[in-house]
Design a protein that fits this description.
The chain is α/β, with parallel strands linked by helices. It contains six helices and ten strands; from the N terminus they run αββαβαβαββββαβαβ. The protein has one domain: Leucine-rich repeat, LRR (right-handed beta-alpha superhelix). Helix 5 runs parallel beside helix 6. About 6% of the residues have low confidence.
Length: 249
């Protein structure tokens, strides 16, 4: 079933809702990141200025702009930061128009909207450095998958409260990220530089960890981690309640 096209009737309905889940028409209905919470709205092809709409969405709690690389921009994030104080979840996956300047607005949003708990920046190629995230202190769920310059330093403020952290493909991430995650329940460090030392730090300092995702050793073109089979066995012995998942891509 195709998602409805965004028209005047949809806009009127959106202004009264708490969830705005937008997607490009070419993606199809299943591309949206939050379909279980609300019907997805398909955007017409070409440019569309969402800022006037978002300025009227003060009650918005969840916003997904996944894949809207032509529309999601730093200006749009500035509008969200100024207009959506109740936001709890923000999904910007594949939004190449978001840059480091845009992350400054995300930071302002986190500071101005204490309810924001979930942020996804998966494959945001325009970010460059993610250093602007260093002062985030309230997020519980953060996805930086394939943000090439992602590093543990960018997580300085949020390490102590994160419950889910996805760093899939962040080759700049190493053991330093593993030492200060006391509440983390799910951690994805596939295709990073984590070593046996990092696994030992997780076993010792992350008692709530239930799922650890690593990359399989064989049949991969990318760095799969610097841990050894012995180090992984030691982690399993020290953290028996944590399930280890090995992925290949």
């Amino acid at each position: 079933m195709e998602a409805p096209q965004l028209n005047q009737d949809c806009l009127i309905a959106v202004l009264a809702t708490q969830v705005l889940a937008l997607q490009p028409s070419s993606f199809g209905a299943r591309a949206n990141a939050v379909p279980a919470r609300a019907p997805a709205l398909c955007l017409p092809s070409g440019q569309l200025d969402l800022c006037p709409l978002l300025r009227r969405c003060a009650a918005l709690e969840r916003l997904s702009l996944a894949g809207l690389h032509r529309i999601a921009s730093d200006e749009l994030l500035r509008t969200v930061a100024a207009s959506c104080p109740r936001l709890q979840e923000l999904v910007l996956d594949f939004c190449g128009g978001v840059t480091r300047a845009g992350l400054e607005h995300v930071q302002a949003l986190v500071e101005g909207a204490p309810g924001l708990r979930c942020l996804s920046l998966r494959r945001c190629a325009g970010l460059g450095s993610v250093a602007a995230l260093a002062r985030l202190s309230r997020l519980e769920d953060l996805d930086l998958s394939y943000c090439a310059r992602g590093s543990a330093a960018a997580l300085a403020g949020s390490r102590g409260v994160l419950r889910r952290l996805c760093l899939h493909g962040c080759e700049g991430v190493g053991d330093e990220v593993c030492g200060q995650l006391p509440l983390v329940e799910e951690l994805v460090v596939a295709f990073t530089a984590v070593t046996d030392k990092g696994l030992a730090a997780l076993a010792a300092g992350s008692p709530q960890l239930r799922t650890l995702v690593l990359a399989k050793r064989s049949y991969n073109m990318w760095q799969t981690g610097l841990w050894t089979d012995e180090g992984l066995a030691a982690f399993k012995a020290a953290a028996p309640r944590a399930k280890v998942v090995l992925i290949s891509c």
